Structure to design on (546 residues):
């Protein structure tokens, strides 16, 4: 429409122009141009806004807290099984005194007692006793044990405490592992008796002195006697240990330890062997939030031979303590004594010589927490032993063991352990040790040493006053020396035990313990079979409750 208007207007102008040119009268003309065009703005689009309230947020915020767990953990160290050992587990009820008695198909009887005196704050005295007699199915397979002693402490002054112990232990074993088993012996010819008198005294400060020093010197003396039909021997051991630590700052400390270990061994032929060991252990310790370092050396004198042992350890951990790297290069000694050797193998005869075992270990591993209740620890290392004691059967009937030494022995060692703890309700631990021996010098094989060992223990509070315990011990067979001086390997062992203890009155508990449930006839030491299935039960009487 607008375009046509423009065209009409243009044609009108042309027509008028021609008409004006046709006139030549010279008069001025007036031309009026009329147009119907009107400019119009296009309607603008409008944006409409509608006020709407925001939607209500009904979702709950999820807040995450990262609180590091600090459970109480206990170092587990597995002990060697003995065919005559009774792994009875006693529940720690809240009582000051108790008497525990029991009977079983192997142990007749079993007695244990404990008495406490004092306020446990400024002074305390504990009296303890334990004894049992056992007899197995094999001829002369029996053993008896008795132990009594007292232990206590006394606080003097504001920052000083004395502690001490006196004890006596008597043990009787019988050499029942003879072959052929048709041989006949008198009981007096087979009995081996051990007697130990022990005393110790120590002094320590309760809290650090004004100079940041902590100390705990202690002296322990034992008199040990071993007697059998062949010979008897006497040994005196004295150990003086003086550990001192001085704090420099909140993170740095200096340790200094001095140890003197004396052994005087009197053989049956009246000859005397003095086996003395001295060492000093200075070290610097750093303890940060995520790093712990322990650096030192240990100068030692094994009789007259000097050895400088390493003492280096380090741990690097995360803030929540769930993962820790650990590494170390450490050296130590195991004292060579007649008394210590009998705790390893009670069927040995008196040794002809005493040598201290020196060892160095280089290891690395991890440890930490899994979740809220699991703890773990895994290490891999190489251990070098010098003068390692080994035990071999005699070449007559094999009922006794002789002590021999490997001058050098290497072991590739793997250790792993895991634990689970729910306060007092449930606790469980398991540990595995693997040793691959090599580089043996002085002996043909690592006689009697276990290549693989596994131990597990569990304690569960099923109800308020009902506890259930269980345990497993297993190992791969060790090698032993035959009568012809050859080498053979024994059979693997598996031993499972379980027990219950519960209250029937305020002062009376009932308990039962079953060992070697599957009645396995394994041998820890060659020719010495352990007891088969055995059950033991009785009562616990508690009194003087608080």
């Amino acid at each position: 429409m607008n375009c046509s208007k423009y065209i009409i207007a243009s044609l009108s102008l042309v027509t008028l122009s021609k008409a004006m040119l046709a006139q030549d009268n010279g008069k001025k003309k007036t031309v009026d141009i009329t147009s119907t065009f009107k400019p119009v703005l296009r309607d603008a689009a409008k944006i409409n806004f509608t006020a709407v309230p925001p939607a209500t947020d009904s979702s709950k915020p999820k807040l995450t807290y990262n609180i590091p767990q600090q459970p109480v953990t206990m170092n587990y160290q597995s002990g060697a099984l003995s065919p005559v050992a009774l792994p009875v587990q006693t529940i720690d009820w809240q009582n000051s005194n108790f008497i525990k008695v029991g009977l079983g198909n192997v142990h007749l009887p079993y007695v244990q007692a404990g008495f406490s005196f004092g306020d446990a704050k400024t002074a305390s005295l504990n009296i303890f006793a334990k004894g049992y007699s056992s007899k197995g199915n094999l001829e002369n397979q029996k053993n008896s044990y008795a132990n009594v002693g007292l232990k206590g402490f006394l606080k003097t002054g504001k920052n000083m405490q004395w502690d001490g112990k006196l004890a006596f232990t008597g043990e009787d074993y019988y050499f029942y592992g003879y072959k052929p088993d048709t041989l006949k012996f008198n009981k007096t010819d087979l009995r081996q008796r051990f007697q130990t008198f022990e005393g110790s005294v120590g002094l320590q400060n309760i809290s650090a002195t004004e100079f940041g020093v902590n100390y705990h010197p202690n002296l322990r003396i034992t008199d040990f006697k071993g007697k059998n039909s062949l010979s008897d021997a006497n040994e005196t051991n004295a150990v003086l240990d003086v550990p001192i630590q001085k704090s420099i700052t909140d993170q740095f400390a200096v340790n200094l330890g001095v140890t003197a270990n004396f052994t005087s061994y009197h053989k049956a032929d009246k000859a005397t062997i003095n086996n003395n060991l001295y060492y000093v252990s200075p070290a610097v310790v750093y303890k940060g939030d995520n790093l712990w370092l322990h650096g030192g050396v240990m100068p030692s004198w094994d009789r007259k031979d000097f050895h400088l042992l390493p003492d280096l350890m380090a741990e690097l951990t995360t803030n929540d303590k769930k993962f820790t790297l650990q590494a170390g290069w450490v050296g130590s000694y195991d004292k060579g004594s007649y008394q210590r050797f009998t705790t390893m193998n009670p069927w040995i005869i008196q040794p002809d010589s005493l040598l201290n075992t020196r060892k160095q270990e280089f290891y690395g591993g991890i440890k930490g927490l899994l979740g809220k209740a699991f703890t773990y620890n895994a290490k891999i290392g190489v251990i070098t032993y010098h003068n390692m004691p080994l035990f071999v059967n005699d070449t007559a009937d094999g009922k006794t063991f002789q002590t021999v030494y490997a001058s050098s022995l290497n072991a590739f060692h793997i250790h792993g352990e895991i634990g689970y703890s729910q306060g007092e309700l449930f606790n469980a631990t398991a540990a595995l040790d693997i040793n691959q021996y090599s580089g043996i010098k002085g002996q043909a094989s690592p006689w009697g040493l276990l290549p693989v060992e596994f131990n597990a223990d569990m304690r569960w509070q099923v109800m308020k006053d009902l506890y259930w315990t269980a345990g497993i011990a297993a190992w791969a067979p060790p090698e032993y020396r035959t009568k012809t001086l050859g080498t053979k390997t024994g059979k693997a062992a598996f031993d499972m035990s379980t027990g219950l203890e519960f209250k029937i009155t305020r002062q009376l508990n009932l308990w039962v313990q079953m060992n070697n449930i599957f009645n396995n006839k394994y041998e820890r030491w060659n020719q010495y079979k352990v007891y088969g299935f055995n059950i033991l039960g009785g009562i616990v009487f508690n009194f003087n409750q608080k």
